[in-house]
Design a protein that fits this description.
Oligomer: single chain
Low-confidence stretches: none
CATH superfamily of the largest domain: P-loop containing nucleotide triphosphate hydrolases
Number of helices: 9
Strand content: 25-35%
Order of helices and strands: EEEHEEEHHHEHEHEEHHEEEHEEEEEEE
Number of domains: 2
Distance between the termini: 39 Å
Number of strands: 20
Radius of gyration: 25 Å
Structural class: alpha+beta
CATH class of the largest domain: Alpha Beta
Length: 370
């Protein structure tokens, strides 16, 4: 078992609390991504798991064993740092083979393992070079190779492909994921890049200011964010937000838009949640993804009148900015949709995919939530 359990983890540096009461279970053989902006506590969490930092409070369990105060060298963990951390006096081959030599593996087997890893990372041609002769991308690949060659219980990766060029970074995403499946090691991957998180993670744990905001599969955190921070942070283009107020009109439950004053009826399960969460007059924020907004030339049911402001043609799709009152809304359309700047159009929202947030608490309205 290589399950990692963080129980009420707290890490302070003087008066600053980097990680606040973190409870998180990383399942055996899972690829979990710690995602968040710079300074949110994700790298500190990773360093606590590795043993490079000792927690101020809380417990860390690895495979059921309490390793909270255990040295890093005694944990079967491989750490890939963001800044390489290569031995300058060793060649690339020496750096990659070093952990195998410390395990007293036979020389022939070491050579085979290093060659296999070098082939995967496309660095066979630099094995005889020392770090000072390598580019930043090559040094990062050597650091990756040193971790991959060990086959540890847990991989800890701190933005390991951030310095690589775009094409190779995309290739390495799939290679790292494939290797994770082949080796079967539990993997914790830190990044601030939401595209990496969405494409690689079995689950994503989103942090902000040392606090875990939400954890779940990529499709869940994208479609059903727990709060406004997650909704803003996930998605490109990001989710649209419209201020509104909960309202009841002739038996219909909905929201009155703060900007244009229009009433939008809310249907389905979200209607019942809206009624249960506070009712008439509650200040809310309506969130909707660009792909869940439709544009129509003519007025229709439950729609809002808007004007086309900007059109960005991206090839396989268009991003259209439309103005509603004082608010700007981004819409993703097919390239075949023809619009003109300044054109009056009518916007409808996919009512099954919109989300409502309490403006005061910033939490999403959910069933049985008050």
């Amino acid at each position: 078992m290589a399950e990692v359990v963080l129980s009420n983890l707290v890490k302070r540096f003087g008066d600053f609390t980097a990680v606040k009461n973190l409870d998180l279970t990383i399942r055996d053989r899972e690829f979990l991504v710690l995602l968040g902006p710079s300074g949110c506590g994700k790298t500190t969490t990773l360093r606590c798991i590795s043993g490079l930092e000792l927690p101020t409070e809380g417990k860390i369990f690895l495979g059921g064993e309490d390793v909270t105060m255990q040295r890093a060298s005694r944990r079967d963990i491989a750490f890939v740092f963001q800044l390489y951390a290569l031995y300058p006096h060793l060649t690339a081959y020496g750096n990659i083979s070093f952990p195998l030599k410390t395990q007293r593996m036979p020389r022939k087997q070491i050579r085979e393992e290093v060659q296999k890893t070098a082939k995967l990372l496309q660095i066979e041609h630099i094995l005889n070079k020392k770090p000072k002769a390598l580019s930043g991308g090559d040094m990062q690949r050597v650091a990756l190779g040193r971790a991959l060659v060990r086959r540890p219980k847990v991989f800890l990766l701190d933005e390991p492909i951030g310095t690589l060029d775009a094409a190779f970074r995309e290739e390495m995403r799939s290679e790292l994921k494939r290797l994770h499946v082949d080796v079967g090691a539990t993997t914790v991957y830190v990044t601030h890049d939401q595209m990496e998180a969405m494409s690689m993670g079995d689950r994503i744990a989103i942090m902000n200011e040392g606090v875990l905001q939400q954890v779940g599969p990529p499709h869940e955190v994208y479609a059903d964010p727990a709060n406004l921070f997650v909704a803003r942070f996930i998605g490109s283009p990001g989710m649209n937000f419209l201020d509104c107020v909960a309202a009841l009109r002739r038996g219909a439950a909905g929201v009155t838009m703060s900007s244009g004053g229009d009433f939008i009826e809310i249907r389905g399960k979200l209607r019942d949640t809206l009624i249960a969460s506070g009712g008439e007059g509650t200040d809310l924020v309506l969130g909707v993804r660009p792909e869940d907004v439709s544009i129509h030339p003519e007025k229709c049911d439950n729609c809002l009148e808007t004007k086309v402001y900007i059109i960005e043609r991206m090839g396989s799709y268009n991003i259209v900015d439309i103005r509603y009152g004082e608010e700007m809304i981004r819409v993703r359309t097919l390239p075949s949709v023809k619009l003109q700047l300044g054109q009056t159009v009518h916007m409808t929202l996919d009512m099954d995919r919109i989300r409502l947030f309490d403006k005061k608490t910033e939490k999403a309205l959910r069933p049985n939530a008050r």
